[in-house]
Amino acid sequence: MKAYQLRLYPTLRQRRQLEKEFNACRYVRNWALDRRSTAYKQDGESLNAISLSRELTAIKKEKTFLKTASATVLTYVLKSQEEAFQKFFKSRPATRSLNGADGCAHVLSNSISAAGIKC
Q1: Residue 15 has pLDDT above 90, yes or no
Q2: How many CB atoms lie within 10 A of CB 76?
Q3: How many Cα atoms sit within 13 Å of 116 on the Cβ side?
Q4: Which long-range contacts (CB under 8 A, 24 or more apart) does 87-95 make?
Q5: What is the DSSP letter of 118?
Q6: 37 assigned to some structural domain
Q7: Which pLDDT score is estimated for 88?
Q8: Does residue 101 lie in a domain region?
Q9: CA triplet 106, 71, 22: central angle to 5 degrees?
Q10: Residue 6 belongs to a domain
Q11: What are phi and psi of 9, to 5 degrees?
């Protein structure tokens, strides 16, 4: 397996858009984690990515900064969090944590060339 290291030189406009994307990812990840925890503690209910995505659609109407972020990135955050929960509770290792790397980086890295950012 080969690894490549690149350096990106985004314009100021592209940098601002990337900041918006990462901030929206961070917000959605924390919101979904809180929503899952609250639902489980109060009702014993386990929420999946689909139900959280429906709630997120309603929240986007209130939180304008979420509208500027890519829906693909936000959906990926919910799906990767669900996958982390499933793996965590399936294997139950003592040292495993749900706090992993931000899943936005993977999706954004796939769309960087489409955004026209110079490497």
Answers
A1: yes
A2: 20
A3: 5
A4: none
A5: B
A6: yes
A7: 83
A8: yes
A9: 50
A10: no
A11: -125, 70
Mapped onto helix, strand or coil, the DSSP state of residue 92 is coil
Residue located via tokens 């890295």:
109
Report helix, strand or coil for 9.
Answer: strand
pLDDT cut 90: percent of the chain above it = 54
The crossing angle, in degrees rounded to 10, of helices 49-62 and 12-43 is 120
CA distances from 1 to 4, 54, 105, 107 (A): 10, 39, 20, 20
Number of domain units in the chain: 1
Q: How many residues does the chain have?
A: 119
CB 23 within 8 A of CB 108: no
Amino acid (one-letter) located at 94: A
Q: What is the pTM of this model?
A: 0.72
Q: How far is CA 46 from the centre of its chain?
A: 19
